[in-house]
Design a protein that fits this description.
The chain is built from 20 helices and 24 strands. By secondary structure, the protein is of the alpha+beta class. The protein folds into 4 domains: 181 residues, Phosphorylase Kinase, domain 1 (2-Layer Sandwich); 170 residues, Transferase(Phosphotransferase), domain 1 (Orthogonal Bundle); 64 residues, Histidine-containing Protein, Chain: A (2-Layer Sandwich); 159 residues, Immunoglobulin-like. The strands form 6 sheets. Strands 16, 18, 19, 20, 22, 23 and 24 form a 7-stranded mixed sheet that branches. The longest helix is centred in the middle third of the chain and has 29 residues.
Length: 702
């Protein structure tokens, strides 16, 4: 990918003329092993770094789009959409030269060519959605991360959405607008945790687009195509397959077949969820009299599919069936287990014609392998009939289910038998030991038995005096106690010592929990009693505590002073309901500092309450008190549960510029950790203050 980025940068710096640049781009695209989506990501990244001229950006995007057609004809992973019969989507000889200031034209047989510039990074749709980043590409359209200016204006803490803009190639299809409207309506009906939420569709001039939930994560195709990927453990595969299967099963129950199920249409979110996207060509297989869409528009007429994951019946243009999705699901499952396609990437028709059979993945149990083989059957009648059955049979190796349960039951029976034998042996053995039996009477001694030799007299040795009580251990030091607390994982703790009694305050994960904490502290020499004032947090808060906990502890040990609390709350139980405004009162340390206030949501994102576009200046005088969110900028929404607000104060700005309003917490914490370490090395930990506020959010009762 450096070659495309390098070529773009050479053009931007003037080191390469435009004509030579496009020749270089063609060479890059011809030999690029990367996915089309990744090529578009590089284009967007370079455009965001330094904007390209509009006509240059559009021409590169057109050439990348055309690459998908070429790859599909070779059996690639990307979706192929058949446009007008005989349409010529290549640049006509009469089209402007790439160096021309006018954008290139897309030609077709039955329409007059007209200049058309595709929307791209930096453009705005309907004066509302700012396209910030290309995050995906498919047969129907390009997907962007977009900032919703209305949400930003309303201070929504999640102002980003995803927008699918129809490709020029697809937009030339006469039924494209119908297709997108149907996709929006179908996807809105498929409300499921494992299916992306679709909001609406609209158009801006000739640009037709679909708005949907923005997912933070990566496509499954990125995982499968990563260098060196050779498969996942069965337990990890089962989790992903279950999420995908639940989505497909729900869609099938509602009468829809996905028809283009592939790794690129599965997103693994940063919060660990599995989301299926792009039901754009899903076709109704349960046709009812009320379903007028079937007679008006059939997405199958688009000819859109992905050969490597399409069932033989799809390739033969038969009516859709849930077993088409099961074939694709089985192919992906096989790839997750092995890192390779079950039929080496060829289409199902080619595999059937060659008599190919998938090889059993190493270490896969008999039950799951049988399920996988049935899902990969190259004929519908032999293929697993339902997703539920596929999941049930593939999950047979889970501990506690199917043959795992049988093994457990057998082990349990064996344990009972062994314990019974041991118990019998002990009971019988005890009846034959002198300690367990009564002393025999004299009359029972046989006459022929020799007379017993009397035991020797017992020697009376003097009993030693009990040892003197050891001297009491000295009282523990604060340094020893806090060193022990620093070894507690997933915690932010500080201890104070009063004689032999230790008091601990802070945050601690539910596991290892307070009992384990007490045990570790009582092991410190001199500690005889432990008092805890510790709030427990869920394990998902561990990245926050691991990165920021040491600074919280060091600041508290140095005396503290900074504070954060929910506005209006006077106790530790900070609770908010859906629609409430998030307002927090902050107090700064006894020195001039720079404030950062971050809200860590359950969806794995972090929203920056301060600084932000409206409050860029976050410098505060000593002992300064303020309320963040007093204008109602931030409101409580889904998901609900225990979330975290963090106050950080630093002697210099934490970052040189503003961060995005919202971003993945994991990446942000990694950067924060590096910056704080640099500050600690140069100015001492005591100049960094960290305070935590755990809040509990819930849905408002209707």
């Amino acid at each position: 990918m450096d070659s495309l980025a390098h070529a773009i940068r050479q053009l931007q710096t003037g080191a390469m003329p435009r004509t030579e640049f496009f020749a270089q781009v063609d060479r890059v695209l011809e030999n690029a092993p990367e996915s089309v989506g990744r090529l578009l990501e590089v284009l967007s990244e370079e455009h965001a770094r330094k904007p390209l001229p509009g006509e240059v950006y559009t021409e590169i995007q057109h050439r990348i789009e055309r690459l998908i057609v070429a790859r599909q004809r070779k059996g690639g992973d990307d979706t192929f959409v058949q446009t007008r019969p005989g349409a010529n989507t290549m640049r006509d000889a009469s089209s402007p030269h790439p160096s021309s200031p006018h954008p290139p034209r897309i030609m077709s047989d039955d329409a007059d060519p007209e200049p058309e510039r595709m929307k791209g990074v930096g453009d705005t749709l309907n004066n509302r959605f700012v396209l910030e980043e290309c995050i995906g590409f498919g047969g129907m359209g390009t997907v962007y991360k977009a900032l919703d200016l209305r949400k930003l204006e309303a201070s929504d803490r999640k102002p980003y959405i995803a927008i699918k803009v129809l490709n020029v190639q697809f937009r030339g299809h006469p039924k494209s607008l119908i297709a997108l409207q149907r996709e929006a309506r179908k996807a809105q009906a498929l409300a499921h945790p494992n299916i992306v939420s679709v909001y609406d569709f609209d158009r801006d001039g000739q640009m037709v687009y679909l708005t949907m939930e923005y997912l933070k994560g990566k496509a499954l195709s990125q995982v499968l195509r990563a260098p060196g990927f050779t498969g996942m453990p069965y337990a990890d595969v089962l989790r992903i397959v279950t999420g995908m299967g639940n989505a497909l099963s729900y869609a099938h129950e509602h009468g829809f077949v996905h028809c283009d199920f592939k790794p690129g249409n599965v997103i693994l979110t940063d919060s660990g969820n599995v989301k299926v996207i792009d039901f754009g060509i899903a076709r109704v297989f349960q046709k009812t009299e009320e379903d007028v869409d079937v007679t008006v528009f059939d997405p199958g007429s688009l000819g859109a599919l992905t050969p490597a994951y399409a069932s033989p019946e799809m390739l033969e243009h038969l009516d859709p069936d849930p077993r088409d999705d099961i074939y694709a699901l089985a192919c992906i499952t096989y790839e997750l287990l092995t890192g390779r396609h079950p039929f080496t990437g060829v289409s199902a028709l080619q595999a059937r014609g060659a008599g190919m059979k998938p090889q059993r993945p190493a270490k896969l149990a008999r039950g799951p392998w049988h399920a996988l083989k049935c899902g990969l059957a190259l004929g519908r009648e032999a293929r697993t009939p339902t997703v539920e059955r596929f999941l049930r049979e593939f999950g047979a190796a889970r501990p506690g289910t199917s043959h795992g349960m049988v093994a457990g039951a057998v082990a349990g029976i064996a344990a009972v038998v062994v314990l019974g034998a041991v118990g019998w042996y002990v009971m019988q053995g005890r009846s034959h030991t002198p300690e367990a039996s009564s002393p025999p009477a004299a009359s029972t001694t046989p006459a022929s038995a020799p007379e017993a030799t009397p035991p020797p007299p017992i020697a009376h040795t003097p009993v030693p005096a009990p040892p003197a009580s050891p001297a009491p251990a000295p009282a523990p030091t604060s340094a020893a106690v806090n060193a022990a607390l620093a070894r507690i994982p997933c915690a932010a703790l500080v201890g104070t010592v009063d004689g032999h009694t230790v008091s601990v305050a802070g945050l601690l994960a539910v596991a290892p929990g307070q009992t384990s904490l007490k045990d570790q502290l009582t092991a410190v020499p001199g500690v005889t009693a432990v008092h805890l004032d510790v709030a427990q947090v869920a394990r998902d808060k561990c990245p926050i505590l691991t990165t920021l906990g040491p600074y919280w502890s060091a600041y508290r040990q140095a005396g503290g002073g900074a504070a954060i609390r929910l506005t209006g709350a006077h106790g530790p139980d900070a609770r908010l309901m859906e629609g409430d405004s998030l307002m927090v009162d902050v107090t700064t340390p006894a020195a001039e500092s720079y404030l950062a206030v971050d809200y860590y949501s359950l969806d794995g994102s972090v929203t920056h309450l301060l600084p932000n576009m409206r409050a860029r200046d976050n410098r505060a005088p000593p002992n300064y008190t303020a309320t963040v969110g007093s204008l109602g900028e931030w409101g409580i929404g889904r998901p609900f549960g225990a979330e975290m607000v963090v106050l950080m104060t630093t002697p210099t700005p934490l970052f040189d510029g503003l961060r995005p309003v919202s971003e993945p917490a994991v990446g942000y914490l990694a950067e924060v950790g590096k910056r704080l370490d640099q500050m600690r090395a140069s100015g001492g930990t005591g100049r960094i203050a960290v305070e935590f506020l755990q809040i509990h959010t819930s849905a408002r009762k209707r």
